Every structure is written in structure tokens, then in C-alpha cells.
Amino acid sequence: MRRRDFISLLGGAAAWPLPARAQQRPHVLGLLASQPLPSVQRLGRKLRDYGYVEGENLRLEVRFAQGNDDRYQTLAAELVDLPVDLIVTHGTPAAVAAKHATTTIPIVMGAIADPVSAGIVPNLAHPGGNITGFATQNVDLEGKRLELLKELVPQLSHVAVLGNVNNPVLASMLQKIRSAAEAMRVSVGMIEVHSTVEIDGALDKLRREQPDGVLVAADLLLLSKRTEITTALGSSKLPAVYPFREYASVGGLAVHGANLSVLFERAAGYVDKILKGAKPSDLPVQLATQFELIINLITAAHIGLTIPPTLIARADEVIE
């Protein structure tokens, strides 16, 4: 996606500064992400509340990997070479690439699973260096998602995890899942992918193996193929729990995760502070505090699953 196309989604000005404003140098903000998701777009909208307007005092440079994690390093280097005044990232691979690309340009992680286990910051309270941001708690939530799957499928005895092995936090996620599974006496199998081209094969393997349920790991490479994933699992009648709300809108059975739109709005506040002189090292990495549970009753009916009324009552959103 071109920068101007993304800006139009943010509701920003489409034109460059008028000649009368040419003397004012706008802040140059880099965005490094997988896709122009609605949650990411909330960043630009919230920045307007802080007084930053594209085409006036703000210039956005967006770089989207489009599900290709190998591109992050090159895209991060492009932003550094421009240069930008600050980089906002989405996801672990993007944050890792930005960290490797610069030790001087401030980096705000708009949403990331666990920056400590990924080696991006030494701790949350004192991130040090040029990086701070917001954590989704997705590693800890993987155990909660397994508990949700058990509620959906009481007879659950074997679960398959669909995960991207190139994601640095997958090992930590699997550790949480296996710990929770052991307590539930549920066995765990891993369906690995290294890139988007392997997803179709992984989905075929799930169809053949027919586990009792599936956990789709929190990973933006997988999210870039969300329609293919939800369609295949629905066709195979496999109950699945997902980490991001975008899966529910394309037929995912159940979603439990942090509200990423809220996190990116909070990230806009950090961007404002840093552009006004604050140091990233003085801003603690904050944890998500708002989470959402979404149940898709249309998909439940399609795969022949009855959702417990108590679970429906707890849901923040029910798709009927």
C-alpha cells in the first residue's frame, strides 16, 4: 500500500503542505507493520487529537511487510536512512528489525507480545535505550485461550497449535500452552510454518489430523492469511480460538486478546511525549489492560458446535 493511500484511511490531509507552511519542518514519523489494520490506523487518528496533522506538522512514512517477515530488516533500514524522527512498530518481528536498524532514533512499540522474552528490552519498568511501548500480554494469554477452547469443546483431549516458527516469542507461547495443557490433561501438537507459502500445507495437515481443537498463535504473518485460515478450519469443522479480532470478522469461531486499537491510541500519547522531548528510556513499557472476547455464532452453527450460554453472556461481542 502506498503512503498516500494509508493516509486517506487515517483521515489525514491528502495534500502536502501549502507554500505558506513550507518553512515549518514537519515531524517525520515512520510506521513499520505487517498491514494497515484498523488498530494501526487508530494511531494516526489519535495523533490528530494531540495536534499532529498530516500535511501540516506531520509526515508519515509507512512500510508494510504484507506478511513477509523477511522484508522487515530492509524496510526498517529504509526508515532509518530517510531519516525519520521516530518509528512506531507493530509485532515482534517489526520491533526486532527496528531495534537492529537504529540505536538512536526513538522506537515506540504500538503492540508487541512480550518484549522482554524477545530480547528487545531488559525489563518493562526500565526499558533503557531508545525503545519503549505497549505489550499485549499475548504470551500469558495463550494459556487463557486454551482454557477458552476447553470451554467450547469440553471433550478436548488433543489440541494443535498453528504457529510461525520464525516469530521470536513462539517458544515462550508454547511453554505457556503446554503448562496449561498439562494441568488440563490435554496433549499439544505443533503445526509449523516458516512463511505464508507454507500455510496451505499446514491447513491440509490439520484437516487430515483432525485434532479436537486448534489454537492459532498470535502472529501477524498468520493474520495476513486470516481468510484462508478461518475458511479452511471452518470447512474442516475444527473449533479454533484466535488472538486478534480480525479473525472473527472473516469467520473465526472465537477470539480472545488485547484490544489493539486502545494500545495504539496509548502509543500516540508516547509519540507525543517523545516528540516533545521525553526519552524512551524514561517511559516504561506498559501492559494491555483492556481485553475482548468475541464469539461467532454463525461459525459455531456451521461446524455444529453449541456455545454455552454462560460463555455468550461473558462475551464482549457476539456475531449472529
- Averaged pLDDT, please? 93
Kindly name the structural category. Answer: alpha/beta
Spell out the CATH superfamily of the largest domain: Response regulator
Strand content: 15-25%
Largest sheet properties: 7 strands, mixed
Q: Could you tell me the radius of gyration in angstroms?
A: 20 Å
The total tally of domains equals: 2
Please tally the β strands and state the result.
Answer: 13
- State the CATH class of the largest domain: Alpha Beta
Q: Tell the overall outline.
A: elongated
Q: List the secondary-structure elements in sequence, H or E.
A: HEHEHEHEEHEHEHEHHEHEHEEHHE
CATH architecture of the largest domain: 3-Layer(aba) Sandwich
Structure explained in plain terms:
The protein has 320 residues and is of the alpha/beta class. The protein folds into two domains: 164 residues, Rossmann fold; 149 residues, Rossmann fold (3-Layer(aba) Sandwich), CATH 3.40.50.2300. It has 13 helices and 13 strands. The strands form two sheets. Strands 7-6-8-9-10-12-13 form a seven-stranded mixed β-sheet, sandwiched between helices. A six-stranded parallel β-sheet has the order 2-1-3-4-5-11. Helix 1 crosses helix 2 and helix 2 crosses helix 11. The longest helix is centred in the C-terminal third of the chain and has 16 residues. The radius of gyration is 20 Å and the shape is elongated. It starts with a helix and ends with a strand.
